[in-house]
Amino acid sequence: MSKLPNVHASTHPVIASKIAELRSAGSDSRAVRILTDEISTLLAYEATALGFSAERDSSDRGTTPKGHTYDKVELNPQRPCLVPVLRSGLGMQSSFLALLPVGTEVHHLGLFREEATLAAVEYYNRLPSMRADGPVDLAFILDPIVATGNTATAAIQILQEWGISRIVFCCIIASEQGLERIAKVWPEGTQFVVGQIDPGLDDKGYILPGMGDMGDRLYHTK
């Protein structure tokens, strides 16, 4: 895949090691939840570095327990939100919330892939009406797997139509084809953070080698 300016593929060795564990058929649901949480924490560190800037305010001073003063630091943008894609995106939610500022809004989108056409079908959307002071400044979309890219494209489209101009899409693995497709469809205002890129898709549109159905693996439903 040619290097795309809006794609950040992690090179963190711990992420690579934990994704290898996550792929294993021997990892039960408890292990899958723990590994997903750990990987998501590391991805959240990388994603927030792309999404935020820190500004020191010398006019607003704090005081340490020893009585020394320091410049307070403000994160910008100041109104982020988190958007897990149901249901597997929920496995990444708590890790991101632990790093994001207090007061971060959480909204959920329900999308599933229609097996015959591979099209994304929306079944749940509770995005609130736009506030009087405008939309949030930055959205982090969470979905562990990008295969064909159809679900990711639909989620980004929904949020852009809602009024969000800056989006960071975060996934644990992505197929080379799917990631390249969505990165080219959304070249501006959207960045993609991925733990690892897989080489291909099978004839049914499933990612190879992949890591199975993450919803089923997280919640032990099969």
Description:
This protein has 6 helices and 13 strands. The chain is α/β, with parallel strands linked by helices. Strands 1, 4, 5, 6, 7, 8, 9, 10 and 11 form a 9-stranded mixed beta sheet that branches. Strand 10, helix 5 and strand 11 form a beta-alpha-beta unit. Helix 1 runs antiparallel to helix 2. The mean pLDDT is 90.
The whole-angstrom Rg is 18 Å
Order of SSEs, N→C? EHHEEEHEEEEEHEHEEEH
How many H/I helices?
A: 6
* Overall body shape: globular
State the helical fraction. 25-40%
* Low-confidence segments: none
Report the sheet-strand fraction.
25-35%
Average residue pLDDT: 90
The biggest sheet amounts to: 9 strands, mixed
Spatial separation of the terminal alpha carbons:
34 Å
* Computed structural class: alpha/beta
Compute the number of strand runs: 13
Summary of the model, kept short:
By secondary structure, the protein is α/β, with parallel strands linked by helices. Strand 4 (80-86), helix 3 and strand 5 (105-106) form a beta-alpha-beta unit.
List keywords for this structure.
33% helix; globular; two-stranded antiparallel ribbon; 222 residues; alpha/beta
